[in-house]
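If your schedule permits, I should be very grateful for your opinion on a structural question. Kindly check, if you would, that the fold set down in the tokens agrees with what the sequence suggests. Thank you for your consideration; the sequence and its tokens are set out here:
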Amino acid sequence: MKKYLFNILLLLGIQLFAQNTNQLKLWYNTPSGNVWENALPIGNGFLGAMIYGNVEKEIFQLNESTVWSGSPNRNDNPNAKGALDEIRQLLFQGEYKNAEKLINENIITRKSHGQIFQPVGNIEISFANQQNYTDYYRELDIEKAIAKTSYKVNGIVYTREAFTSFPDRVLAIKFSADKPGQLSFVAGFTSGHHKQKITSNGNKELSLSGTTSDHEGIEGKVKFNALAKFKVDGGSIKTVDNLIKVENANSVVIYVSVATNFINYNDISANENELAKSFLNIAANKSFDKMRTAHIAAYQKYFKRVKLDLGISEASKLPTDQRLANFRKVLDPSFVTLYYQYGRYLLISSSQPGGQPANLQGIWNHSMRPAWDSKYTININTEMNYWPAEKTNLSEMHQPLLKMVHELSETGKETAMVMYGSRGWMAHHNTDIWRINGAVDGATWGVWNAGGGWLSQHLWEHYLYTGDKKYLESVYEVLKGAAMFYSDFLVKDPKNGWLVVAPGNSPENSPAAHQGSAMTVGSTMDNQIVFDVFSSVIQASAVLKKDKEFADSLLVMRGLLPPMQIGRHNQLQEWLDDVDDPKDNHRHISHLYGLYPSSQISAYRTPELFAAAKNTLMQRGDVSTGWSMGWKVNWWAKMQDGNHAYKLIKDQLTPLGVNEGGGTYNNLFDAHPPFQIDGNFGCTSGITEMLMQSSDGSVHLLPALPDALKEYGEINGLIARGGFQITNMKWKNAKLVAVTIHSKLGGNLRLRTPNEIVLKGNHDLKKASGVNPNAFYQVEEIKNPIISKESNLELLNIKPTYLYDLNTTKGKNYTFLIKEL
């Protein structure tokens, strides 16, 4: 007799299972020393700090999201338009190097290559006679977004606690001891800025004011002011040479505020001094405990939406740096949970509504000249930062990026017209806080002109998850503008009549057959991005019932794009011609954009392309830089190969230098190297894709569960396209044993599961067939690939699944009973 298991239906918002909160801490039994990558990050989307946890000299390294070099500027190269025809002619003739020369001379900017995200400075606190300490401990509690340090000297326990308040826009720090009168220190600001001034106003306050750097001919005009106010319980406090000296206090609270004159990319007329003072005055009137309570509540509103439990092993009892060193050798499932939730913590902490998007380092940078200027690299890195946003229930954190896309569409109109004579808007591979759109760095990188096209898809993705038609209406012209640029820019390839992007490239890769040049026409990634840009506008036009004539023209043009091709090595071709090298291990595998984050390549709809993509992944290998490993986790999850995805997570969660390629620093920052935050966000996205996918016509549960995590697990709070929320999902021995789904928008729910299910209650659960009628799961038809030899379909190795349809009602929960054989 068959038995049925079912979970108890609970109201949304109630905790469905207990998560061991001790597992949501990064903790260490040694200080950071002078190593920034050992320090612990806190942030509220506007203000960021790295906490070193050193005993004798504590350092709080400060960032503010608008402290950038330069000032409003443009970097378009108007020579591009006049040289475009000759460049195209050379490319079509295979004269790649000559075309590259012209591109460097006429398309790459002659002005700024982008400005620099810069630190504010440090607040440093020096303690006397504390070198002989014991019982040292420091932690970052990512469930509460609070950092703590404690240690013992001469039998006295000293404790430090810090957080960047979400409601109050300040850094709050508390020093205390378990015996009265034991706190004595000297505190002050330091900064690497040339134009800076440190003063004291005599009211237990210090000020660090300054102006950011000039860079590449652009004058630095961002003015900043950091204020620190000291509130002392007991003892004495005085100012000495712009330092604060505290003696024999019971406890000390420091509030730090930072503000700039930045309003937006073309307005820096704010009063940074008044703003910093207003933030500080509000905070100073609150107690530390009251502010702490409000901070936790504001943070947990986001963080607690998703809970993950993968079980706990003995390995979880060790400090975080030791767990990192051991992870590739031992089973430590809760370390995966920690790393997953750490990605969500970092996104909440570096990207808040009203602020700037997370840049190449999120919001944390200690260098006046960081790698790649810590800008926005929009040929993968910026997009990857936001892959977890919608599906891990952090839609609000997406808003700063969506706003930046709006702003780039404004500045990019001039770029499209001045450089290419095209309507609409565009951006190349890099931008900064001033929303530059010109081509930078050199032809190998900068000629790629799909940055705007790719970023525009984040607007469409936000709609697919939220179903907000008013929002879609508000962004339609931005989507349309991205499509309009391509409708003007595409040109006919004389060899085969396809419409191609020319010039273009496959980001940063250079085939030997192209004279070692990255220049090309109609790269596979370019074609895939244009396909998505056209498709999203076609669908948005239908949803909004507007602009049908333009949408119809895009439908025609989309049909003239080159199809994806399978080459002689059974690989997905990266370029129009079959010149891929199976020994090429380049970190960018850009032509797999069609597999992820796009859904053009599918195990069920395009099996030949799916097999070719798998061949490409195997040929490229696993060794790569940190962000590239993060992307590969997502690709192998889409391949429904959980073991390979997990292998990449193990490679990522390896101390830098142990393996070839990238890895992870002791504070769990991704190591490209150096630090880039995209690898953290990429892995959080990839782990989500291992447990739930919703981009291929259905909500697919447990599509890529690895053997290492199959014994037990549960997750709730994930969001699928069309507003379906996984409020409770459990598995045992790789079998789904419970799931409840909340329908926010109503409509057809198509579920793909690893084992059979039935539905509790009087609902009609049917076996699915045909196209999913839910408009949010509309799948655009892909041309049959051009195959140079017989496709290697035996590589698919896809496990059988069960596919169901259920017509849902908006606002209702649906509990599924799992058949137990």
Observations:
- The first helix runs from residue 79 to 92.
- DSSP finds 18 helices and 37 strands in the chain.
- The first strand starts at residue 3 and ends at 5.
